[in-house]
Amino acid sequence: xxxxxxxxxxxxxxxxxxxQQEDEDGxxxxxxxxxxxxxLGKNELSINALSLIAIGALDLSYERNxxxxxxxxxxxxxxxxxxxxxxxxxxxxxxxxxxxxxxSNYARGFYVHAFSMISSGKNYDYNxxxxxxxxxxxxxxxxxxxxxxxxxxxxxxxxxxxxxxxGGIGRNLLNDNSPTIVGQVMxxxxxxx
Length: 193
Prior knowledge:
- The protein has 2 helices and 10 strands, in the order αβββαβββββββ.
- By secondary structure, it is mainly beta.
- The chain has a single domain (44-192), classed as Porin.
């Protein structure tokens, strides 16, 4: 439960901050009534600062805004640290996401997303031999495909700086050696251009 409090707090903070800057940095489209900024583009690059600091993984994202209500993104995950902190270690993953925004601002604010992920890694099985007082480690590689969903909030400054906070949960579908449930907690920092 404690693991869910930080993402929930960040999402609530995003809604509050986003509601305070509703008309600050954009031009309202007369046809649609939606707020958009003509100076900013539709492309975004970002890095997940949370995974880099907390678990030593490089998680890079490219996002393309389709229109004011939706976007798609591709994320690449590389595990940089050799430390084993869990039974399952994901070494590499590629994720595709579709986001739908519920805001009058152009592709920012509160959103829901659906994702698919292909990941590979190792499943570590620890056995302890009490007779000889040694522990033995066995590992099996896995590659799997997951589907999932999540929620988040995105803030964009007038200069294009991006802060995107999200969390998601999915299920691996193909391999018995992989973890059944996959999760994503992201604090992406980047730039819209």
